[in-house]
Specification:
It is built from 4 helices and 4 strands; from the N terminus they run E-E-E-E-H-H-H-H. Strands 1-2-3-4 form a 4-stranded antiparallel sheet, with no helix packed on it. It is of the alpha+beta class.
Length: about 140
């Protein structure tokens, strides 16, 4: 697979990502950021940075009790899926009152940070959001 276009900044090296390649090896999917460096000397030059697997199968197996499947960094919905898994697991969590209190405090902090990001406009806009805003403005 080759997704062409501006893909932001590479989390490994900081260079602009020209496209992302998906590679299959041994039944698993892995992602690579490709940086097009031009044609020095007439030959196309590319640099590739390994971004990791689509899913971390072995590590995820140690979190089965939470129903959590750890995803690679190129999976855009991974945070939402993590939260969904935690919401499913939390009612069945066996921890003491002190640990529950710490979890509540931590989740309040998460909520505060997310609300601050929204308020200050620190988020990326998807194409769907951009077109919706364009329609509202007209």
């Amino acid at each position: 697979m080759k997704e062409v276009g501006s893909k932001g900044t590479c989390p490994r090296c900081g260079m602009p990502v020209s496209w992302i390649e998906r590679q299959r090896k041994g039944g698993r999917e892995y992602y690579v950021a490709v940086h097009y460096l031009g044609r020095p000397g007439g030959k196309e030059a590319l640099r590739k940075c390994y971004l990791g697997p689509r899913e971390y199968a072995y590590v995820s197996s140690t979190h089965e009790g939470l129903g959590l499947t750890l995803k690679g960094m190129v999976e855009p919905r991974r945070v939402m899926e993590y939260l969904d898994s935690l919401l499913t697991a939390l009612p069945h969590l066996n921890v003491g009152k002190g640990e529950l209190s710490k979890l509540v405090d931590k989740l309040k902090l998460v909520l505060k940070v997310l609300e601050e990001k929204l308020r200050e406009g620190h988020y990326e806009r998807s194409e769907g959001e951009l077109s919706e805003e364009g329609q509202e403005a007209s």
